[in-house]
């Protein structure tokens, strides 16, 4: 079968029509915290509880996720749009300024957990797979916390929406 490559820009333009729930994935290694706004995350299994997140491997700052062995997946609500922007890199900010846009605590692993997220999944890394431009990190969920139901923050057509 002959493979016909798709132009990366064409692919990104088509994927911009694919709506996704906005998540904040966080980790810590020593005293260094890292957080990234993503839409590429999902449930893998409920027994054992497992989620996956996809992170761009071209950013060397993401290496901390591959070294720490832990992460938290925080589901963002409509009230988190400024926080999502801060961790997406849309606004130039220091790491401390980014983390100051929200209130964080810890559950089991020590990864930063957003205090008022719609839901948070505290995870230990089970496996990491490199796939082209991204790493897929599988995490065993060791703790969960969720708050009152509020409108969700979605990203579609290169802009935020709520549901």
UniProtKB/TrEMBL annotation:
Q: Does the keyword Aminoacyl-tRNA synthetase apply?
A: no
Q: Which InterPro entries match?
A: Flavin_Rdtase-like_dom (IPR002563), NADH-dep_flavin_reductase (IPR050268), Split_barrel_FMN-bd (IPR012349)
- Domain Flavin reductase like: where? 15-162
GO MF term list? FMN binding; riboflavin reductase (NADPH) activity
Query: Known SMART domains for this protein?
Result: Flavin_Reduct (SM00903)
For this protein, the parts annotated as crossing the membrane are none
Q: Name one GO biological process term.
A: pyrimidine nucleobase catabolic process
Keywords recorded for this protein, A-Z: Oxidoreductase
Q: Does the keyword Magnesium apply?
A: no
Q: Which PANTHER family match?
A: FLAVIN REDUCTASE (PTHR30466), FMN REDUCTASE (NADH) RUTF (PTHR30466:SF1)
Mind telling me what this protein is named?
Answer: Cob(II)yrinic acid a,c-diamide reductase
Lineage runs:
Bacteria, Pseudomonadati, Pseudomonadota, Alphaproteobacteria, Hyphomicrobiales
């Amino acid at each position: 079968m002959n493979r016909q490559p798709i132009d990366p820009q064409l692919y990104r333009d088509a994927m911009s029509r694919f709506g996704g729930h906005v998540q904040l994935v966080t980790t810590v290694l020593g005293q260094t915290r890292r957080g990234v706004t993503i839409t590429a995350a999902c449930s893998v299994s409920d027994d054992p509880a497992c989620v996956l997140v996809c992170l761009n491997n071209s950013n060397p700052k993401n290496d901390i996720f591959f070294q720490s062995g832990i992460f938290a997946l925080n589901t963002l609500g409509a009230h988190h749009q400024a926080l999502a922007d801060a961790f997406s890199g849309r606004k130039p900010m220091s790491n401390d300024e980014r983390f100051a846009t929200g209130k964080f605590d810890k559950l089991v692993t020590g990864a930063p957990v957003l205090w008022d997220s719609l839901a948070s999944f505290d995870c230990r890394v089970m496996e990491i797979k490199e796939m082209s431009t991204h790493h897929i990190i599988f995490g065993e969920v060791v703790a969960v916390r969720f708050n009152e139901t509020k409108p969700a923050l979605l990203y579609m057509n290169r802009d935020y929406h709520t549901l």
